[in-house]
Amino acid sequence: MSQARQQLAEQLAETVFQGLQEDLSHQDRVLLVVSGGSTPVPFFKALAAKSLPWDRVDVTLADERWVDEQSSDSNAKLVREHLLQGKASAATFIPLTCTTATPEEGVDEVAKRAETLAWPASVVILGMGGDGHTASLFPDSPELTLALATEELLVAVRTPSQPQPRITFSADRLHQARRHILHITGDDKRAVLAKALNGDDVRQLPIRAFLTCPLAIYWAP
Ligand code: 6PG
């Protein structure tokens, strides 16, 4: 881990901590929406060390791969191993999978669970892939139009470029959050972001769906 990425993770953790604290001063419970993938691990560790009333914090994911929670591809596993540790182990984690074989069969059950959370989310931290996807809003997914337009909470997604089916919060649900942050590292992602900032076709680079909200960009080389 480069020093710059570690610093970035710590600064992001401080910002998220402040946002959650602010909302906790006037709400019983707050909701934090995090992303999976490889980038967030040092951020999760830095946030887990913060002194918050974690028993009043709900944590969920922007999206999830429809795999067993024990799988190394599970974003839930990542969150449990790196964020729900130490002080943060008192937080409540709401997974986006259930026991059904497919996300299409499980999406209603997961939505019922997610609907009870303290929306709007206090903070959404997004990642971004080299193809401009964020959450599971992929440029090549047949469900992209639906996920960008629906007012439903969650959408089951099948994407040719991805090995597993997925489930994602809709763009609308993520939009409604109080604070949006994009956490990315490396020159390749800087170039993708630059491209995204230079155009409007959301279907080409779905991260553009979030360039209409105030989006704080946390980037390090
Ligand atoms: C996932 C994510 C996804 C992620 C990007 C970036 O489940 O894969 O939620 O949207 O944020 O793919 O992933 P990396 O951090 O691994 O580059």
Could you explain how this protein is built, in words?
α7 links the parallel β8 and β9. The longest helix is centred in the first third of the chain and has 22 residues. The chain is built from 7 helices and 9 strands. α1 crosses α2. The protein is an alpha/beta fold and 221 residues long. The protein binds 6-phosphogluconic acid (6PG). The site of 6-phosphogluconic acid has 15 residues, from β3.
Name some characteristics of this structure.
221 residues; alpha/beta; 6-stranded parallel β-sheet; 3-stranded antiparallel β-sheet; 7 helices; 9 strands; 33% helix; 19% strand; binds 6-phosphogluconic acid
Brief characterization of the structure:
This protein has 221 residues and is of the alpha/beta class.
**Residue share in helix:** 25-40%
H/E element order: HEHEEHEHEHEEHEHE
Q: Into which percentage range does the β-strand content fall?
A: 15-25%
Q: Helical region count? A: 7
Sequence of strands across the biggest β-sheet = 4-2-1-5-8-9
- Pairing-aware structural class of the strands and helices? alpha/beta
Cα gyration radius (Å): 16 Å
The hetero molecules present are: 6-phosphogluconic acid
Quantity of strands, as a count: 9
Identify the overall geometry: globular
Largest sheet: 6 strands, parallel
Mean pLDDT: 97
The end-to-end distance, rounded to whole angstroms, is: 11 Å
Poorly predicted ranges: none
